[in-house]
């Protein structure tokens, strides 16, 4: 037999898809359950056996593994290759079923991976959730190195140390050599207890791997079988993602090894000699079986689909970019291809950040199994899924909650007779359409009953089919959001792309998705249901090698240094390719430099341009991505070589030409579209000839999926049997009026939120400061013509209610003088600001000469002047001491950016101030201020263009109507919540509950919360709150509104839009002259970051929902003229609740900013992070204990000023319902009194202080825990 079998296999979580090329030139498609232990032990192997069995049987040849001898070894002499993608590792990570291992890291940093970036994923969930660490035990290695700055030469800062040159070219001071005896003892202890897998990630090992390598040698000598070293796997700067990647490898690689052994065990002993076995990696390349590691396997399954659509849809002659749309059972993956695969290097899966090249795939929790629900007056699709068991209602497994699949069944888009008959107890029954219809009728009744109660008898009931169609429309809108995010948010227009739909459910939704996005062309591959498997047959073998670097990008490094490093890596990669037989034209080498501007974290992987002008290529891509370039030095973070071995690919088979007429109709079915049921012909795709053209509606059946051609669409069959659909985008929203419709309401809720989200992405992309671009200390929002909040993307809670105060103040203040082309900047607390570093930029959206919406962005600027670097002074007494105060200034006037005017304000903060007798320092970083202000203007402009698109699409009257409808729904949700809490707390119909708490200086915050169950309203009365203080933790009124709207949103358990409607049932009384309503000149910098947390604790205590969290943001700054400035907020413990334990080491309530990675921190600043750990036992005890705070100890290596602004150092975070209080925080200044013997004097700094520190001094910040809930 000259030709041989070729197998491309995608082993998914539910199904295993197989595309096989047979020796006679034909092909075979097969789909099996991935797990069916009663019939076979391994689905891919069983699929291979069945293909071989059937082929040999048809040719009359003997086959030793027929059905009577399933367990016999499969012969491999006729198999050429097996290419496989698998979710084995991904599922193990999601379900936390990997291999137990021990994690080794530098002493003092044992909890650095568990702390992560300290942010929480769902800001309105009081039951904060953080993924559990993968490791079970930790060894703290006694070793320490530091990066020596070039400006310091080879000067040793510590006695008896050694300085070496690292692999990046940086110098490294070995402060403490590895204690090998201690390490060997610890490794032996865990080996003796049964561990065989080890993950090692030491600080700065990306450039100094010696200590890691030695630990690996010791572990190997003891007998560890899996040793994952971060310096070998992915030597990139940033300890947390590199460490988590290493843990993933140690956790999953042994599992993959076991799986591969099991897979191979069913074949004869010659399989590895006879068969080329490769596996798909997350970056879209195949690798030999022996190089298939856990950390490179996470996107193994989806990557095949990306390769599949990229190689079959994209045409080089016209180069139209393609959007890949892969819709499965529980989620949908979207990606973009424009002739090059787009890779990212930091992705999150199951809460774990993985630092490795991966295809840029965005996932949304909307698939065939997504739950359909009606809550708080709003239709919802997902994010929950009915799962495989019980699955959709129509699966005959006892499912009760309808899903997207059930809706498609009800609408006739899935026909039971053409769907596999694999259901019921005998697994031979068709889908149960009646069950799906009954479930939809129940859901329709719930919706109709609710709407009738709200709208009266004028409401016209919806049929179950109308409700099902509405849910499908909503699901489609949810799936459009990630597509907008990978196109519009990056400067591309979605309508200029081809939509390539695949996956089991994708083709059912293709036309509708394209129409919503204005895309005129849809491509559906002949094997769309198994495109991930087919794509494996098109993929190439890839070897990727990467090294860290610290070269500046300049003429010298491009002559000496970088070329040599690239050549060395290229030689290594070529050797690997040659070992697999790839030489000459079959071996392609791609080289890259990972470049970034000095002082930023945003790096871009730049492929070597033809003219080798890296700087020009970098600036072009940076400008395209972010809209500008920065006049700063460019650094080379990493050097990368990617070797591609051009594989023999599967060959698509041409189909015969059409013979002038369409094939016979299998059946005519009723399928529901927007206006009702339509007679729809059903065809079999394989009956069409190439060139056949037809119009919708039509249903096309394929072996593994169903394609719906909607009315007003035309389709054509290509010569390879694929389907190209031309979509009419006219008449998209005909019939939509201002009258409330549930489906349209949910769609508008998505669209409004999408505008705010895309504004945020634009701001993050176009800003340059660390605070906005990397710590994500910003918010963006959309406002109504009267300044009421319409949609606020889930950025920072402290900005939620306060931004609308700023917008409304400007509307009242400016009146008709606010013209189109004007952009206002403000930060003054009296004008709706929070504290001065938070600068708000506001732009009206004009239509027909009048403002019809407003958009605003607020960002924390690292410095705006004032008496302390960082503009967060602990001892400010007056507002002007905190920096530039701006009540209202036209930053852009008549379309012109007023750089001179804003520069004068920022550089001279007290200019013209009547009560200031001495000058106050102006901004210390004007260039960043101006750049970030321009970025905020750009973000607002993005919002304006999106709002105008929405108005053009629906009409202003409809958009305004649904703006009001969305606010009314939020209002109703809050009203229902107030009634529920009143009943749960057994309150009278009108009743009052009280709560109070104290700031550390003894100032009291009092709340009398009156809930009126009949009127469904609440009054927040803060009478009794202490006077305004001669300090800086006075909170502007807007801060209290932010705390209230945040708390109300947290208490509404359902997903609702966050907007002004939440505050309609609420009245707030804030006595003037108090801590919560201070005078215009009062200092407020601490009110935003400290008092806001206390207000939130008081509100949640009144509602009885949650014990106190750490109640602080632990604001820490340091800097000098030579060092520059640094600012961070530090996590603590979260309060426990009635059914949950508090989470440790997380930002809670009013903030959610990230913390700088330890290696970046030490690389940029003359400091050492001596400890960053969880403060065990600091959470309050109780039936549900509170979360623990953290210990953060920093050693200074230069003279500078250091400041801390914190709370909960005197009054502890309180427990609730018998739960104990948490530990208070403590700020300890460790003054070095002998640098040789390392003796320190410990000094309690209190909660707020500023100190001049010297080399070797330290600060130890111990943050508060969260209160416990309930009696233990």
Provide the descriptors you would attach to this structure in a database record.
8-stranded mixed sheet; alpha+beta; 26 helices; globular; 7-stranded antiparallel sheet; 1272 residues
Strands, count = 55
What ranges have pLDDT less than 50 throughout 5 or more consecutive residues?
Answer: none
Radius of gyration: 31 Å
Helix content, binned percent: 25-40%
Describe the largest sheet.
8 strands, mixed
Structural class: alpha+beta
What is the mean pLDDT?
90
Q: Beta-strand percentage? A: 25-35%
Question: What's the tally of helices?
Answer: 26
**How far apart are the first and last residues' alpha carbons, in Å?**
74 Å
How are the strands ordered across the major sheet? 20-15-14-23-24-35-34-31
Apparent shape? globular
Protein described:
By secondary structure, the chain is α+β, with helices and mostly antiparallel strands. Helix content is 28%, strand content 25%. It is built from 26 helices and 55 strands. The strands form 13 sheets. Strands 20-15-14-23-24-35-34-31 form an eight-stranded mixed beta sheet, with helices on both faces. A seven-stranded antiparallel beta sheet has the order 37-36-40-39-38-41-42, sandwiched between helices. β1 and β2 form a beta hairpin. α18 packs across α23 (956-984). It starts with a strand and ends in a 10-residue tail after the last strand. The model has no long low-confidence stretch (mean pLDDT 90).
